[in-house]
Amino acid sequence: MTQPVHVDTYTPEEPTRPRDPRFRAMTVSGGLALVLCAAAVLLPSPYVLESPGPTFNTIGEVDGQPLIQVEGTESFRPSGQLDLTTVYVSGGPNGRVNILDTFRAWASPNQDVLPEQLVYPEGTTSSELQEQNALAMTSSQETAIAAALAHQDIDFTEELSVARLAPGAAAEGILQEGDILRTIDGQEVRNITTLRSALDDAAGTPAALSVIRDGAPLEVSVTPRRSAEGDYQLGIMLASTFDFPFDVTIQLDNVGGPSAGTMFALGIIDNLTEGDLTGGRHFAGTGTIDSLGVVGPIGGIAQKLVGARAGGAEFFLAPAANCGEVAGNIPDGLTVVSVETLDDAVDAVEVLGSGDGPEGLPAC
């Protein structure tokens, strides 16, 4: 009987070699690279990123409810699209973005990278920013209602009060925050236009102002100063309080800022007008608006153009003051019309909504 043979195996040991000094250097370099990559992902960068946001149809619905609802007077449910446009903003008081996200935004044709200090004053907190955006949105809705009613020749009242005085203002020590302006040189202060006209007429001579302070009437005299633009100013910031003859409710959450004013005003006009202002066509746009219907510039126009086209818009209403930023940033298939006033915007929508082309309308 054969017995199993136990054989001890042997693997010869390789001779010991001296360690290559480059190995340690490569190991250290590799570890450092990993640390730097992690830092790029995790460390915040002092930039603000802007990218295209969603659009909202001002003559449509949000969560099953009309975005704009008119009560207390005859109104009509329009069809078509009058989209307000938005911009996603990352960074700043709501939390800094990391370096990797910043590099990605730099490489994207649809995003902008801006130094944080150019967008937000130093020390601005998240809660302060939210409050400012909410106040700006509320103010834009009120001025949009006023502009729309003025366009429709519907009477309302506007009360101007002193919100703030500039340092060294002509009215410093004479007017106070909260003063309500009633008359200037015997003329009723109905809106900012009557005030500006009266100040220019005074041409640097003392202007007699009648104000209400703490509920009591007060007569004061202020000598306006000429600004660099050539007009005469008191050096005050004004706040408007409106009294409208019926209710207009605008339902839109999670959107802040003043740049939807023009599209709100168009939506209100379409609700107050029988028939469809748009002719069933798809419009988008942006722009601040004041109670006199003047359309003002906004930020993020390039991203709003992209967002409008992505939402299906054929036509875009852009503030004339933004035309320099519009050029070269218009997506294929989108026609941009330049507007300076609400009247311009209404005319453009009516012309294009009737089926005519944009040839006779101002373009950027």
Topology diagram in text:
Blueprint: H1 21-42, E1 44-45, E2 47-57, E3 61-62, E4 65-66, E5 68-71, E6 81-90, E7 97-98, H2 99-107, E8 112-115, H3 116-119, H4 126-151, E9 157-165, E10 180-184, E11 187-188, H5 192-202, E12 207-213, E13 216-222, E14 225-226, E15 232-233, E16 236-243, E17 247-250, H6 261-272, E18 282-285, E19 288-289, E20 295-296, H7 301-310, E21 315-319, H8 323-326, E22 335-339, H9 342-353
Helix pairs in contact: 4-6
Task: Give the N-to-C terminal Cα separation.
Answer: 104 Å
Strand content: 25-35%
Unreliably modeled segments:
1-17, 22-41
**Sheet with the most strands?**
6 strands, mixed
What structural class results from the helix and strand content? alpha+beta
What characteristics describe this protein?
Ribosomal Protein S5, domain 2; 364 residues; Pdz3 Domain; single chain; disordered N terminus; 30% helix; alpha+beta
Structure description:
The protein is an alpha+beta fold and 364 residues long. It folds into two domains: 47-153 and 245-353, 2-Layer Sandwich (Ribosomal Protein S5, domain 2), CATH 3.30.230.10; 157-243, Pdz3 Domain. Helix content is 30%, strand content 28%. The chain has helices spanning 21-42, 99-107, 116-119, 126-151, 192-202, 261-272, 301-310, 323-326, 342-353; strands at residues 44-45, 47-57, 61-62, 65-66, 68-71, 81-90, 97-98, 112-115, 157-165, 180-184, 187-188, 207-213, 216-222, 225-226, 232-233, 236-243, 247-250, 282-285, 288-289, 295-296, 315-319, 335-339. It has a six-stranded mixed beta sheet with strand order 8-2-6-18-21-22. Strands 9, 10, 11, 12, 13 and 16 form a six-stranded antiparallel beta sheet that branches. Helix 4 (126-151) packs parallel to helix 6 (261-272). The chain is globular. Mean pLDDT is 87; it is low at 1-17 and 22-41.
